[in-house]
Every structure is written in C-alpha cells, then in structure tokens.
Amino acid sequence: MRLHHSLLLSGASLAVGVALGAGLTRWKLQDEADPKIHYLPIVKAASEESLPSPSGITRFGLPGLSQLKTRQSHVLSYDSRLRGPAWVLEQLNVDRLQGSANRQGCDFKEDDSVHPYHRATNSDYRGSGFDRGHLAAAANHKWSQKAMDETFILSNVYPQNPNLNQNAWNNLEKSCRGLSKSNKNVYVCSGPLFLPKMEVDEKMYVKYQVIGANHVAVPTHFFKVVVLEKYNGEIELRPYVMPNCPVDDKIPLDRFLVPIESIERASGLLFVPNILKSSNNLKAITAGQK
C-alpha cells in the first residue's frame, strides 16, 4: 500500500490520493465539478449557534458542586468525599465570646442537608478511638445557644486524636479567644490536611485512615489560619499546623507556626490574595517569629 498526500488550497483545491491495490481514489473539496472525483463536503467552522447550549448539557443536573453552608456561628465548605469540611470559617470578637449559651445540652447530630451517601453519623465514631473534634469551637460562640448548637453538627467535625483534641488543639482554640481581647476581630479558618509521607520504597504517598460504615476520613494534620484585624487597621496572619496524633501540650504554640504558603499548597486553598484585596497592611507571623 502506498499513501500519497497532495495539498492544494483555493484555486488548486485539496487532494488526498490513496492507492488501494491497483486502483486510485481521488478526493477534492466541493469547489470544482468533475464526475470522476469523489467530493468532500465543505466543513464550516463551528459557530456559537451550532454549539450545544449549557441548558442542554445540564439537562439532568450537575454531578456535584462545592457545598457552601452558612450557619449562625460559622461558614463552611463541605467535601463529600471526606465526609467533612474542606474549611470552616468563623469570626471572633469580645461580644461573640460573651453570653449564656451552654454546651451541656448540646448533642452531636448528622447534617441533614448532606446526602446520606456522603454524611457522617455518630455511629461512625463509636468505638473508633477518635474524638469528634470541632473545627469551629463551641466555646467561641457563647453569644447564642443556636450558634453553639450548630458547632455540634457533624459537618463541622473530624475524627481527632483525643490527646490532641483535649490538649494542644484546645490550647490553640483558647489562644484564639484570648487574642480577641486585644484585637478588633479575629478570623479563624480551620481545616484538614492530608500530607504525603515517604514509604519504604522511597516514594511519596498520601495515606489516611477512614472510620465507620460511611468511611469518614481521618486527617493526617489540621491547620488553623488566624487573621488578626487590629484597631489601627493592621492585619496580622498566624498560620498553624498540628499533626493528628498525641501532642505534648507543654510545647509552645509558636512551634506550630508555618509559612502560609505551605498550607495553601497542601490544602488547595488561598488565603493571602483574599486578605490583600481588603488590606495591603499585612504582617505574617511564621515559625520563629513573634
């Protein structure tokens, strides 16, 4: 078989010859009349009118979208694959930390706004050895009983090592509340991290445990990005990362400060661009700084 291509445009037209056995089939664009030639149809460039409309593409709906949920006490973006939030954002100030709300009557409950396939339940945590760790802390929202109650919805919760939850992570939450006394506002964004680890084959893998029938993801680490809005207009950024394992609560919190870029890269989130849109007076506090 021999394949012969000749390309002639405009006055000469386009011809592609293909030898099949002893025969030869000739092709041309349909711009010249010749009964011995097989004509190719003229293909026009796709116009906007010929493209499928978005309404047609989405006739049966979209498979999924980021689930943004707004509570009285916090805002979160829910990740259905993990059965937990990608991030939880809350605002602290002196007024929000005061009030009569009591956590004694609060019960952890499922998030009914999440499809049952993608929802964590209390039974997932039973016997797992993990605490139901808040990302938006209950004690941050004493100003409203409803606000505090909403922090117990399981879409605000991840499996957390009991030692971490009740000690170092709790100390970090207390520190955020303390900072509200000397700042106009304290914005706290908390979330999970799933960091890679080198295995014996010297390759990097992301591995994490899941618990319960719904396979609730157990993060390898947690981040907490703290943004301080000062009374003089200055903005201070304090990014923390803690491993989801027993942590000595005597370790100073400054030891857990990391460059904000490391959290942005690992989480797929961006913090600094959003802050700079609101203020050019940004001071970043990282490890080894005060």
TrEMBL record:
Cofactor(s) needed, names only, are:
Mg(2+)
Main EC class of this protein?
hydrolase
| Active-site feature positions | H134
Recorded hits in SUPFAM superfamilies, A to Z, give: His-Me finger endonucleases
Tell me the Gene Ontology biological-process terms attached to this UniProt entry: apoptotic DNA fragmentation
Residues of the ENPP1-3/EXOG-like endonuclease/phosphodiesterase domain = 71-278
Primary place of residence? mitochondrion
> Domain of life, per the record?
Eukaryota
What keywords would UniProt list here?
Disulfide bond, Endonuclease, Hydrolase, Magnesium, Metal-binding, Mitochondrion, Nuclease, Transit peptide
Q: Name one Pfam family in it.
A: Endonuclease_NS
- Which is an annotated GO molecular function term of this record? nucleic acid binding
Q: Where in the cell is it found?
A: Mitochondrion
GO annotations of cellular component type: mitochondrial inner membrane; nucleus
Annotated DNA/RNA non-specific endonuclease/pyrophosphatase/phosphodiesterase domain ranges read: 70-278
Q: What is its EC number?
A: 3.1.30.-
> Which residues hold Mg(2+)?
N165
PANTHER family for the chain? ENDONUCLEASE G, MITOCHONDRIAL, ENDONUCLEASE RELATED
Similarity comment: Belongs to the DNA/RNA non-specific endonuclease family.
Name by which UniProt lists this protein: Endonuclease
